[in-house]
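Supplementary Data S3. Sequence and structure tokens for construct A.
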Amino acid sequence: MTTPNSARLDLLLSMNASDPHTSTEIDALALGNTRPIIICDVDEVIFHFLGGLEKHLAQQQCWLDPASFALTGNIRHLSTNEPVSKDHVGELLFGFFDECAHLLKPIDGARQVLQTLAATCDIVLLTNLPRTYLEQRKQNLCAEGFDYPIIINRGAKGHAVARINQYGGRPTFFLDDSPANIQSVATIAPETILIHFMQDERFRKVMPDMPEAALQAKDWGQTGTFIENNILQQTDSG
């Protein structure tokens, strides 16, 4: 018998499956074919996701060990320092989404840089989020000054980025903190300019080399300058 909690857990742990709504939502964006596109992740790129999660974990007598870029195996019990089970990781994440994920705060510079870039670029937010929380996420983004189209994705983001590229202008920039997503886009949409964004110094230290990325960014000031310079270079060369 499937309970509501187990169904929610199954959804979270099956995020590698594609979302059937993603392509339809991308097609509805109605992007032009002249403006550059910035495809931007949300958690740990726009919002301080890990900081909020760590506060929630502390309330559950757990902590996040930044030993690698993963949650399963790195969320540990405070009392024993042992990793929590995979099922318990799912429960903790859904508890966080329920209680805290609509109250996340932006990373320094994100709002200002994106507002500046929006004058000349189309901005699309592409996030791997359980669809149940889409409206909360939209409200959170709008309240913090990020009123841009948001697309829900599951799994690696290469196919979604390739589909966006079909309907939009050039160049296209993709920002994400996940090495797996950077590699996916590099393989499936190689025309995209990739920015690996990791502002958390603890996790930057355990990141693998990302030769696919044109920039490995630490903050939004660096990111904004890189994008603006690339747009100018391509305009001048055109």
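Construct B, processed identically:
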Amino acid sequence: MSVQGNSPFQRHRKSLKSDMNVVPYIDVMLVLLVIFMVTAPMLTTGLTVDLPDAPTDSLAVSKDLPAIVTIKSGKQYFLRLNNGADEALSVDAIRERLQALQQTNPALSVLLNADQTVPYGDVVVLMASLQHSGLKQVGLLTEAPAQ
């Protein structure tokens, strides 16, 4: 018994879709976007320093990043070069590293980044020590006062 015609059990053939299904790719992209949005604020690292507020003029922008020497309370000294990590060093080691850098880059500028709680005398002694070792462009970092 052969059934020909419109049987309720007959299969209807559909044409094949040749389009790519992009829904899974969109899902993956949204998950990656959320991951990057959550982790991006955690990528900025550095030392927290309570800078004094003072109205100052901005430095001229140069193509080379300045070396940053940080002084925390308790006479802890750190050196940061080219947006790298802060490295805890002694004053003598910082001076030697900066002198070596100045040999390759005579226009090297150094910025001092000190807590408000660090005695003024410690900042001046470090600044004078760096200048006596041959570094000519030594400056201080400050924050603009809140208005």
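Residues 67-140 form a domain with the Nucleotidyltransferase; domain 5 fold (CATH 3.30.420.270). The beta strands are 67-72, 76-80, 87-88, 109-114, 137-140.
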